């Protein structure tokens, strides 16, 4: 009797597994067909979207996840919720899908993330594939994705002058020139250092973003008018032109928007209106004459922030690493090169991507552990990150990935300025973002590599 019972139970388990897998296969393939029929994509983009749908990437990585019916079953429900939560924390695919539909350049960090898991054979996970039989990537699938990533990087992200062997790197060298108006640059430089943008004429942009200190102020959080203490660590202004958005929470779309924020922040510059600022600038006859020669309509919020942004475009710091990517094989030491290989192998380069080693995506702090629970001190509103802007719980604790250029000069680190040592910062990022404890030798090599990113402020050539 016991033997027959075990056989029956075993048979039911096998039949249940086969039924579950069959349903999953039907769901995945039918969803891919429906998705392909609903929207028209450019030819190559359509092939990539169909492939990603067939592999059920949407299941765990889309905010618009369509789960199969079995996901409501006891046990499966909890597992599905866990998979989706983990997937969304690591990578959200919706922006990539939107770019495929619209024919726009795909997000640079998304390309790096997909490339890593394709090469690493880590997606889809083995447990997921054990039920979703159709989701494993074939070698043909891998080649299609990698070739597409290469084509997108070469078309949209490779820096002119990069050595051919590095044109498909997730990191790119800084450009050597870009169009700027030298007259606006001159005005912007003056305004950047002008404390009259603050209510009491004591604080300028340069107060928190000193060009002699790596573009920061070296404080845990910055000081505003009257010695008020700000809520967050000041990010560097150097190379900020290459960020997709500005501020840790991305509330400013570009440099002009960013420049218009601090003057009216009551904890920073505390001015009450542009008219208050303009009233002071108007009394400076020399500056006003120079300004009206460039902006015939005179001072305004738009013209002031436009000039500051034009100056900030020139705050670019090419380094020895840029020389290496442009073909100078002697630019880096062997230890720095080993650090760069570790930087890529440890998945640092899937978030710190592009010309600015960051600034291209919003990432959740604490993928492999609760950073905030382990940190000394209570929670602050600034710790909410991107959620403060979007009011979307999926954005809680997400921050714009900071640039690593000049990182050796910009301590203290993280949005809360809680880490003063670069080696410690490396260990913390490996622990909470990668889930890895690195050896002393590896940390030393990574820090050596990061030191190679210290650059020299060289104004752009004008075009």
TrEMBL record:
A GO MF label: heme binding
Signal sequence range: none
SMART domains hit by this protein: Haem_bd (SM01235)
InterPro entries in UniProt: Cyt_c-like_dom, Cyt_c-like_dom_sf, Cytochrome_c_Peroxidase/MauG, Di-haem_cyt_c_peroxidsae, Haem-bd
Entry annotated with the keyword Ribonucleoprotein: no
Main localization, broad class: other
Keywords: Heme, Iron, Metal-binding, Oxidoreductase
Name of this protein: Cytochrome c domain-containing protein
